[in-house]
């Protein structure tokens, strides 16, 4: 009887354990010591594409997509009795479904590993585009930062503390010379697997540059331990050399960094670290002051957002004239901050930290206010072109706000032009074309800035239907002395004539430049030759039509 009670108790405990497992997982799998499935229960077909009865006898790693096989193999091979892994997001091979995989290796279970597979919000944060480094299998910098943003938001919602470890691997080129290309490829592949192994969700690791790497991970994982693991790995594969590794770890939810725009601050600091070769921005200095750099960046972002949102900036207006007769066609609206301060650096900072939309909307609002004043006093409205960053054009919320701002006044709307700057930041040209045509459909004209300055200029002209393009000033500066630049300007001008696109030359400073531009067929010019940016615009009163007053005593008038 006592034996029966004991068996009933064990059976109840087992059922309770299974119930708890199914409450948190869609599929339970048990693997033997070789990683082969010996038991499965749950939504096998939906997750893996294999019927539950057919899973038994299959190596689990064979069910996983190629890009995740190395990570899963590394996890399973490295597990010891009593280990429980941080859940990783894994894509199934047959179904392409991404599921969170948790694993534990309980004592006294013959080396078996128990897996719980589940589909949840963490799986959905996996990078959609997944641009990967071919050598390591890690996300490239842009996709890594994109995924880091998503992972930080998901972790914050779940109350999970996350950290970022940045690593600089010194000596990769020397190692490649010692080992050769094939062996070095194997080293980089294993480094990629190792970094993903310890990353949040199994994919929050990226190759930021040739020798710089980033890993998002839970606070339970020591960033220094990741550094030691890579050092140990490379020493084994290259006993004569190995790598000198430096790392820096920061708590991503510390203090003010949990506020809005924290990820943009993080991205800015990471990008400055990757792009700078200066001694004062190496991994050592970063490690000593990462928190400080992030907090300073956040403080500056908040201060600039306040400037933008409270319109604490000035506008100046520079004329753009018709080259044929030098009549003013429209004005470009430029921003000025503190007296004597160049607007270039604050604008670049705003673009790189994601707050440029606040400035673009602030300028749009201030321009509307200016035009309303002119409209109320009965003057002819000048045409004004405001700068819109390619970053802003990528935001649906920004476009909605811009359209709403000008929706109530057709005359003002038709006096507005939009000059798209940083067009290289436009990621989806098909989407951008639809947005541009929506904007043009409201009466606003659109131009592309700095054409000719990048290799993709003709790609943008081909993909985006606009009213004007602005020719980069570097070509105009050299047009008198460089046959090559003159030829490029001539070809660009002819192309735009055929496409019915107006051409605007920047940085026109001399009469001689103006003459050559006229010969080459450029339509408009902008530069100090025509006028510097001014704090105001001279406007003219509207001419009122003279009509005879036909209404005399004894006469009736009508429209019929």
Annotated CATH topology of the largest domain:
TIM Barrel
SS field, number of helical segments: 21
Distance between the termini: 110 Å
Q: Write down the domain tally.
A: 3
Sheet with most strands: strand arrangement: 10-11-12-13-14-15-16-17
Low-confidence stretches are: 255-260, 548-560
Number of strands: 17
Radius of gyration: 31 Å
CATH homologous superfamily of the largest domain - what is it?
EAL domain
Domain EAL: 297-547
GO molecular function: cyclic-guanylate-specific phosphodiesterase activity
InterPro entries: Cyclic-di-GMP_PDE-like (IPR050706), EAL_dom (IPR001633), EAL_sf (IPR035919), GGDEF_dom (IPR000160), Nucleotide_cyclase (IPR029787), PAS-like_dom_sf (IPR035965), Rev_trsase/Diguanyl_cyclase (IPR043128)
Protein name: EAL domain-containing protein
Q: How would you describe this protein?
A:
The protein has 560 residues and is an alpha/beta fold. It folds into three domains: 11-125, 2-Layer Sandwich (Beta-Lactamase), CATH 3.30.450.20; 141-302, Reverse transcriptase/Diguanylate cyclase domain (Alpha-Beta Plaits), CATH 3.30.70; 311-526, TIM Barrel (Alpha-Beta Barrel), CATH 3.20.20. It has 21 helices and 17 strands. It has an eight-stranded mixed β-barrel with strand order 10-11-12-13-14-15-16-17, surrounded by four helices. The chain has a five-stranded antiparallel sheet with strand order 2-1-5-4-3, with helices on both faces. Strands 7-8-6-9 form a four-stranded antiparallel sheet, sandwiched between helices. β4 (98-104) and β5 form a beta hairpin. α4 (66-78) crosses α8, α10 packs across α11 (283-309) and α11 runs parallel beside α13. The protein is elongated and about 105 Å long.
């Amino acid at each position: 009887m006592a034996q029966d009670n004991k068996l009933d108790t064990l059976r109840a405990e087992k059922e309770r354990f299974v119930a708890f497992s199914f409450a948190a997982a869609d599929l339970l799998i048990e693997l033997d010591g070789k990683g082969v499935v010996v038991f499965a229960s749950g939504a096998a077909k939906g997750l893996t594409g294999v019927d539950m009865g057919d899973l038994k006898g299959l190596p689990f790693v064979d069910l996983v997509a190629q890009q995740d096989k190395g990570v899963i193999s590394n996890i399973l091979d490295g597990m010891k009795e009593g280990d429980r892994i941080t859940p990783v997001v894994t894509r199934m091979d047959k179904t392409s479904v991404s599921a969170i995989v948790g694993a534990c290796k309980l004592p006294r279970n013959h080396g078996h590993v128990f897996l719980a597979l589940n589909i949840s919000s963490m799986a959905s944060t996996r990078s959609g585009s997944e641009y990967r480094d071919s050598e390591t299998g890690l996300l490239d910098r842009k996709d890594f930062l994109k995924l880091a943003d998503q992972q930080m938001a998901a972790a914050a919602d779940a109350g999970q503390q996350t950290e970022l470890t940045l690593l600089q691997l010194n000596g990769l080129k020397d190692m490649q010379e010692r080992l050769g290309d094939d062996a070095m490829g194997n080293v980089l592949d294993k480094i990629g697997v190792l970094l993903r192994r310890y990353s949040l969700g199994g994919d929050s690791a990226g190759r930021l540059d040739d020798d710089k790497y980033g890993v998002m991970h839970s606070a339970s994982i020591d960033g220094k331990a990741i550094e030691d693991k890579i050092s140990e790995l490379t020493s084994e594969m290259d006993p004569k050399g190995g790598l000198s590794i430096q790392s820096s770890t920061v708590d991503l939810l510390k203090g003010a960094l949990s506020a809005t725009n924290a990820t943009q601050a993080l991205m800015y600091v990471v990008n400055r670290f990757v792009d700078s070769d200066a001694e004062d921005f190496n991994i050592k200095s970063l490690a000593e002051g990462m928190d400080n750099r992030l907090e300073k960046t956040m403080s500056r972002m908040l201060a600039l957002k306040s400037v933008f949102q409270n319109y604490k900036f000035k506008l100046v207006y520079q004329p753009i004239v018709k080259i044929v007769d030098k009549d003013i066609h429209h004005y470009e609206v430029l921003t000025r901050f503190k007296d004597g301060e160049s607007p270039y650096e604050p604008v670049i900072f705003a673009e790189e930290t994601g707050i440029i939309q606040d400035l673009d909307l602030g300028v749009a609002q201030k321009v509307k206010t200016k035009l309303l004043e002119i409209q109320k006093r009965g003057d002819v409205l000048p045409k004004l072109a405001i700068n819109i960053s390619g970053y802003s054009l990528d935001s649906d919320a920004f476009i909605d706000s811009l359209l709403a701002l000008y929706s109530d006044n057709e005359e003002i709307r038709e006096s507005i032009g939009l000059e798209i700057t940083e067009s290289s930041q436009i990621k989806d040209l098909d989407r951008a074309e639809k947005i541009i045509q929506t904007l043009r459909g409201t009466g606003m004209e659109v131009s592309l800035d700095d054409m000719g300055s990048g290799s993709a200029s003709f790609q943008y002209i081909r993909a985006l239907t606009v009213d004007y393009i602005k020719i980069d000033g570097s070509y105009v500066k050299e047009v008198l002395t460089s046959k090559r630049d003159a030829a490029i300007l001539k070809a660009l001008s002819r192309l735009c004539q055929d496409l019915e696109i107006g051409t605007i030359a920047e940085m026109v400073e001399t009469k001689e430049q103006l003459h050559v531009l006229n010969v080459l067929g450029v339509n408009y010019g902008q530069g100090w030759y025509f006028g510097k940016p001014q704090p105001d615009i001279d406007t003219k009163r509207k001419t009122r039509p003279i009509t005879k007053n036909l209404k005399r005593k004894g006469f009736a008038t009508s429209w019929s």
